[in-house]
Design goal:
The complex is a heterotetramer of chains A (365), B (224), C (375) and D (185).
Chain A: H1 7-21, H2 24-61, H3 77-87, H4 98-114, E1 120-122, E2 125-126, H5 133-141, H6 144-154, H7 158-189, H8 194-199, H9 206-209, H10 211-228, H11 240-243, H12 253-278, H13 292-302, H14 306-325, H15 333-360
Antiparallel strand pairs in A: 1-2
Helix pairs in contact in A: 1-2, 2-12, 2-14, 3-12, 4-6, 4-12, 6-7, 7-10, 7-15, 10-12, 10-15, 12-14
Chain B: H1 2-12, H2 21-26, E1 38-40, H3 41-57, H4 60-87, H5 89-92, E2 115-117, E3 125-126, H6 133-137, E4 143-151, E5 157-167, H7 176-180, E6 187-189, E7 203-205, E8 212-213, H8 219-223
Parallel strand pairs in B: 3-8
Antiparallel strand pairs in B: 2-6, 4-5, 5-7
Chain C: E1 17-21, E2 33-39, E3 42-49, H1 57-61, H2 66-73, H3 81-96, H4 102-131, H5 135-155, E4 164-165, E5 168-169, H6 177-200, H7 203-209, H8 217-222, H9 228-231, H10 239-242, E6 255-257, H11 263-286, E7 306-313, E8 318-325, E9 331-337, H12 339-344, H13 347-351, H14 356-366, H15 370-374
Antiparallel strand pairs in C: 1-2, 2-3, 4-5, 7-8, 8-9
The chains are: A mainly alpha (365), B alpha+beta (224), C alpha+beta (375), D alpha/beta (185).
Chain lengths: 365, 224, 375, 185
């Protein structure tokens, strides 16, 4: 890494600046708040880009332009939507469980934001650099369903209830194969820490180094995480042609907006994890060979800044999820569960064994 | 021959597939004698189901893997199509950007029925004789012809058009008024930008103030 | 329902609940209300409620002259407006004993088949959308819009035309009509492989339709189903073959019959019918007759006293027009036997016992148009 | 077609003036931002009863593509939408349902009457016993689009007309609470 301004420099500078003004305890607290706010802002900007991207991708795949009249190329479209949603009347239905109804979107949002903590954004830029980062994320992400279940149950609407129950069954079962494919990557890297996993890919990403098991695990992770985000073709929880709007049928205004936001935040997190595990996070593209040509190539790759790698990979996987959404028909609930229990789970178990063999025999590059 | 054609097309589209036990049962229904010219797609189903039964007798693991691969291939085909659209959007895009193309490429056809008009010539004359045939032809009373009696110069009483009231709000553009008009006095115009804030503004008076009936040209004038 | 064994006391029992699907629901394609009794995800019973779009068309025709009442029929099954007008016009012409010019017949059949194409293309898109894929909807509309351009240029309306009138057609087609349609068919044929690529060959779609929504031949006959729904159950019921009208007897086309009885069979029948429609139009275009487009008939039509029945094949099945005339210029009674109404009966036997998502798939392949049910 | 210059009709909205004839800068800018957001993000309810619904679908489709304006987010739940496009005939049996859908929508909400049936009863105006003669008998209508059915461009024009109305109206009208007779249904 040459001559680029590193995030570590910036954080160190902020740290010293704060220390010169405040006591160490206050410094710590202020840094915590700062990092949280920064992550949130970055994520919200990402979400706005993603919503815009979704509408454009959908448009382009359907032979039309998508939003292009609000601002140049329609870039202010999402901002107009946000303003409208913020100013919209929001209320809870008469016979709903008011407390749960109002808590549910906030809870769903909190849970998905919690998963941000151990994510490694750039070299040295992690909110909580713990040695069990991936474990923490898997634990948190399975809690996301609670918000959906609360929303569905408290709305006092049968569509919402069916949607929430579907979502519950779906997320609980798809956690398994997502978890198993994460374990494959973790076993290859030999660590649970996000930074450690990324560092282990310094000479090449796991999707290349880990041979076939890594590729299969990556595919399974993308499928399972699409299901976990309730995205089409697994969007049974809000299947529009069946359940009008699923678990958020009764939500209006910004409460609905939060669910909308939540879906995109989940997508972002899932794709960040996928890129961390299999595509090397912020790590540039390196080839694991010792020829001078390859060395030069690796060197050139280092010139591309890490944040570009990070967001490039993230948006690539998000594009994949959008691509699926605008191509495939929706599965039925029994097919969805069959896919998990009869196909993805056995395949990922066999795959994990296969990966274990490779790791034991040191076949990975 | 036709049957074989369909079968091969199905094969191409990857129809060889799972059949539930339900469908295997119902294959007992034999194709009846429905004449020579009916397409018996059912035969294809029979062939496919027999293949399926054969496949079942083979190793099930092989089937399992085959199914997974088939699923991936069939989904990838769809993905490729949408990706092709995504990449070549500038070529395949068919959007007419309406408010921008109002003056240029808008594809409103000449015959499009937008609203009924009563054309006036430069002397503020129209051809309507207030015969009310259009009013009678109109299925839902969208036309009201209000006529008045006037005395012409030579003392005769004559019925002329006073108001040609057109209810655009209930007009259904069935063309029957124009079909019924013996004078070709009314026409359909292909305008469509007719939205309003107030329903009462959709009731038009088609004859302009001060307009009068166009005199029929005499034989001399017609020749010239 | 009756086949289900009663659960033993030790067995797990769940509570059934009723969900009202509609009148405003994206899957009902209109304002049909379906009262579905669900046990979890499984549909136990279905009760359709009609009348949310009952406009009294049959009653209205009694107070309208024959000429005027035809235009109401295009509001019944608006996706086959031409064919509805055709049925009504044929009934009146048969009663009056008028022979219409060859050119009018050719135009009528071309318009009917183009209308069938538009309807099936819209059906294809919305069927895929009910199953969850959105992009096919746009592809279906892309091709449909091309046909609508021809409608607009020749008939003046895009959807609810009043073009086929007693005696022929309202206006002559444009001089460029034949070349336009030829070009159109070439384009539509070129797009057919995309349909297969995106939906027909799709693994998920096949699994959502194959073996789902079983309607046996006996059921189809006893429910008086017609059109693609009945033909997918092995019933030969194409009116164009059995009771040909306006020159269908001279044309070479096949009645599409499938013995699959499920959603997939209905899907295949629809797709194959599109091919057949294109084939029919091509035959007519090759020697498109010249001459008059309309026989002059009196301004006020008075049918002789008696009963008249005319059936045609719409995109959804058999449409029957039954007129009781009392000698005046208004019918004593006009009754429409609409295909969607009979086909609606197929929703319950196909769906009971399946999942709620299958209800939407069945309803979309049965291809209901709600104003056609209620009239 | 002949091209009208002012193709969107002028909406005579209230001016932003107080009793003294002054305007408040802050209120107008807040209004402007709110109205900009609202007018550019009209999410319609997927509600169609008959023929006009097909033209509504055509407007969604790629050739006319109202997603360019940001209207493409069609919500099936009335809670999440801003606009009902009454596309088709409303019968006496359907009218209470429509009223209920309108009541379920959160403020601000708008209604477009699309097509002759919704504007006035259309083909069924004259002698049908079952049809509501104009949807404005049931719910307040903002924009009327004549046509049977209106072509997709006409619907887009109607939506732009509604945008014009939203842009010229006050975002927040503070009124003294009036005691009204209200039906609780």
């Amino acid at each position: 890494m040459i001559s680029m301004i590193e995030f570590t420099d910036i954080t160190a500078w902020i740290h010293s600046l704060l220390l010169s003004v405040l006591t160490p305890t206050w410094t710590y607290i202020v840094e915590l708040a700062l990092s949280g706010v920064t992550a949130l802002v970055v994520l919200l900007v990402c979400v706005i880009i993603m919503v815009y991207m979704e509408r454009k991708v959908a448009g382009f795949m359907q032979l039309r332009w998508g939003p292009n009249r609000v601002g140049p190329y329609g870039i202010f479209q999402v901002i107009a939507d946000v303003i409208k949603l913020l100013l919209k009347e929001s209320f809870s239905p008469n016979r709903a469980d008011k407390v749960m109804f109002n808590i549910a979107p906030a809870l769903a949002l909190c849970v998905s934001l919690m998963a941000l903590a151990p994510i490694s954004w750039a070299p040295g830029l992690t909110m909580w650099d713990t040695n069990i980062g991936i474990l923490f994320i898997t634990a948190i992400s399975s809690m996301g369903v609670i918000g959906i279940l609360m929303a569905g149950w408290s709305s006092n609407n049968k569509y919402s209830l069916i949607g929430a129950m579907r979502s519950g069954a779906q997320i609980v079962s798809y956690e398994l194969s997502a978890g198993l494919s994460i374990i494959t990557a973790v076993a290859l890297a030999g660590t649970l820490s996000t930074n450690g996993i990324i560092q282990s890919q310094a000479d090449g990403w796991w999707i290349l180094k880990g041979q076939i098991p890594a590729i299969i695990a990556f595919l399974i992770y993308v499928i399972a995480s699409t299901a976990e985000c309730n995205r089409a073709p697994f969007d049974l929880a809000e299947a529009e042609s069946e359940l009008t709007a699923g678990y958020h049928t009764e939500y209006a205004g910004m409460q609905f907006g939060i669910f909308y936001l939540n879906e995109y935040i989940n997508m972002a997190i899932v794709s960040i994890i996928a890129s961390t595990l299999f595509l090397g996070g912020w790590m540039p593209f390196h080839l694991p060979f010792d020829y001078p040509v390859v060395q030069t190539f690796n060197h050139i790759m280092d010139f591309i800044p890490t944040w570009m790698w990070f967001f490039g990979k993230m948006f690539l996987i998000i594009f994949f999820m959008m691509w699926f959404r605008w191509t495939f028909p929706r599965l039925r609930i029994d097919q969805l569960l069959k896919l998990e229990w009869k196909y993805l789970l056995p395949i990922s178990i066999v795959n994990l064994l296969f990966a274990a063999v490779i790791i034991v025999l040191h076949w990975h590059l | 021959m036709f049957c074989i054609g369909i079968y091969s097309s199905l094969k191409k589209t990857g129809e060889l597939n799972l059949y539930s036990s339900l469908q295997e049962e119902k294959l007992n229904i034999k194709p009846g004698s429905n004449g020579t010219n009916s397409v018996k797609l059912g035969k294809c189903h029979l062939i496919l189901a027999q293949k399926k039964i054969k496949n079942k007798q083979m190793k099930s693991l092989f089937n399992y893997i085959k199914e997974v691969i088939y699923a991936f291939v069939s989904l990838a085909k769809g993905l490729l199509l949408t990706l092709r659209y995504f990449i070549t959007i500038k070529k395949v895009n068919i959007t007419e950007e309406y408010p921008n193309n109002r003056t240029t490429t808008i594809s409103v056809k000449e015959r499009f029925y937008g609203e009924v008009v009563l054309p006036h010539n430069e002397n503020n004359e129209h051809k309507c004789t207030a015969c009310t045939l259009c009013q009678m032809a109109c299925p839902n009373n969208s036309i009201q012809i209000i006529s008045k009696q006037i005395e012409t110069e030579d003392g005769k009483k004559k019925r002329v058009l006073d108001k040609w009231v057109y209810h655009l709000d209930s007009c259904t553009f069935c063309y029957q008024c124009i079909d019924a008009c013996p004078q070709d006095a009314i026409e359909m115009k292909n305008s469509f930008e007719l939205s309003v804030y107030d329903r009462t503004k959709l009731i038009y008076q088609l004859n302009r103030p001060g307009s009068k009936l166009k005199e029929k040209p005499t034989v001399k004038e017609q020749q010239s | 329902m009756e086949n289900q064994p009663t659960p033993s006391p030790t067995e797990l029992r769940t509570e059934e609940f009723v969900v009202n699907i509609g009148p405003q629901h994206p899957a009902t394609h209109g304002v049909l209300r379906i009262e579905a009794t669900l046990d979890g995800e499984t549909v136990k019973n279905i009760l359709p409620h009609l009348g949310y779009i009952h406009r009294g068309i049959e009653k209205m025709t009694e107070s309208m002259p024959y000429k005027q009442s035809i235009y109401l029929t295009s509001r019944m099954d608006y996706l086959s407006a031409h064919i509805n007008n055709h049925a009504c016009s044929l009934a009146i012409e048969n009663a009056l004993g008028i022979e219409i010019p060859a050119r009018a017949k050719a135009i009528r059949i071309i318009m009917d088949e183009l209308q069938r194409l538009t309807s099936h293309e819209l059906w294809w898109g919305s069927c895929a959308m009910d199953i969850g894929a959105v992009t096919p909807f746009f592809l279906g509309f892309r091709d449909r819009e091309r046909i609508l351009e021809i409608f607009e240029a020749n008939t003046g309306n895009r959807l609810t035309m009043h073009y086929i009138v007693p005696g022929g057609v309202m206006r002559d087609v444009l001089p460029t009509f034949v070349s336009d349609v030829k070009e159109l068919l070439k384009k539509i044929k070129g797009y057919r492989h995309e349909y297969d690529q995106l939906i027909t060959g799709n693994f998920i779609f096949q699994h959502r339709t194959q073996g789902i929504g079983y309607l046996s031949k006996e059921q189809a006959i006893s429910l008086a189903c017609s059109g693609p729904v009945a033909r997918a159950s092995g019933v030969s019921c194409d009116v164009r073959k059995h009771y040909p009208y306006d020159g269908y007897e001279k044309l070479d086309f096949k009645e599409v019959i499938d013995y699959g009885c499920d959603n997939w069979a209905r899907y295949l029948v629809h797709m194959e019918e599109m091919t057949q429609s294109i084939h029919i139009i091509e035959q007519l275009l090759d020697n498109f007759p010249t001459g008059d487009f309309r026989t002059k008939i009196k301004g006020i039509i008075k049918l002789p006293e008696g009963e008249y029945y005319q059936r045609v094949e719409t995109a959804r099945g058999e449409l029957g027009v039954y007129i009781v005339a009392d000698g005046s210029n208004k019918p004593y009674r006009m009754k429409f036997r609409t295909p969607s109404f009979s086909n609606l009966g197929a929703v319950k036997p196909t769906t009971v016992g399946l999942k709620i998502a299958d209800l939407m798939a069945n309803m979309s392949t049965i291809d209901l148009v709600v104003p056609d049910i209620d009239r | 077609m002949d091209v009208k210059k002012d193709f969107i009709p002028e909406f005579e909205g209230e001016a932003y003036k107080d009793d003294m004839g002054r305007t408040s800068f802050i209120v107008t800018s807040v209004d402007a931002v709110a109205n900009w957001g609202r007018s550019n993000s009209l999410w319609p309810l997927s509600f169609g009863t008959s023929c006009c619904a097909i033209e509504l679908m055509s407007t969604v489709s790629a050739k006319y593509d109202w997603s360019r304006f940001g209207f493409e987010v069609m919500r099936a739940s009335p809670r999440q939408c801003d606009l009902i496009i009454v596309a088709g005939t409303i019968t006496h049996k359907m009218a209470p349902v429509l009223k209920r859908l309108y009541d379920q929508m959160p403020e601000p909400r708008y209604v477009i009457a699309m097509g002759a049936c919704a504007v006035s009863g259309g083909p069924f105006y004259y002698n049908s016993y079952a049809v509501v003669r104009g949807v404005d008998n049931v719910i307040p209508v903002d924009v009327y689009i004549p046509g049977c059915p209106p072509r997709p461009e006409a619907l887009i024009h109607g939506m732009m007309t509604l945008q014009e109305k939203i842009k010229k109206s006050k975002a927040y009208v503070i009124e003294k609470p009036k005691k009204k007779k209200e039906n609780n249904d």
